[in-house]
Design brief:
With 156 residues, this protein is mostly helical. Among the domains are: 40 residues, no CATH class; 31 residues, no CATH class; 36 residues. Helix content is 44%, strand content 10%. It has four helices and three strands, in the order αααβββα. Strands 2-1-3 form a three-stranded antiparallel β-sheet, with no helix packed on it. Strand 1 and strand 2 form a beta hairpin.
Length: 156
């Protein structure tokens, strides 16, 4: 009986974890990997695998780069000059400058045309008359609708 309950609990755990795995909320590989690595965190595990002889990718110094096309027409970049038969362009990368130039937006002349649009004021005498006339039209429409409904009810 105990074995049956244990099997059911294991199956229940598997059935609960499958949707979590598919939704990306639970990663069983990293979970079990952390169990077997002695509780080492993922970041410390990654940093322990990084070679020690790598230098910093980002530099505060200016960097000189040579840019040229090889025999196949592929653009090449290197910090050493290319063979003499290739014409190379020297590019100096300054960490204190933008790599992309700003986009210049053409300035359009602003026209000084002022157009006055007069909106009817609902609080003026004319605006109030229009509002009352509209309300009377709605009232007449509702009375006709009610009369038609009453005729339909009487004919049933």
């Amino acid at each position: 009986m105990k074995l049956l309950i244990f099997k059911m609990l294991v199956m229940l755990g598997i059935l609960i974890s499958i949707p979590l795995i598919y939704m990306g909320k639970f990663d069983p590989i990293s979970y079990f990997d952390s169990l077997f690595s002695g509780g080492m965190s993922e970041i410390s595990a990654l940093t322990s695998k990084v070679p020690k002889n790598l230098s910093s990718v980002v530099s505060d110094d200016k960097v000189l780069v040579y840019k040229w096309r090889d025999k196949k027409g592929v653009m090449q970049f290197s910090n050493t000059p290319p063979p003499a038969e290739n014409k190379a362009e020297r590019v100096e990368l300054d960490p204190n400058s933008n790599l992309m130039q700003a986009v210049k937006v053409p300035v359009e002349e602003v026209r000084e045309e002022v157009v006055k649009i007069e909106k009817p004021n609902p609080y003026s005498v004319g605006g109030m008359k229009k509002a009352v006339d509209a309300a009377k039209g709605v009232e007449d429409m509702m009375k006709k609708r009610q009369e038609k409904q009453m005729e339909m009810l009487n004919n049933i």
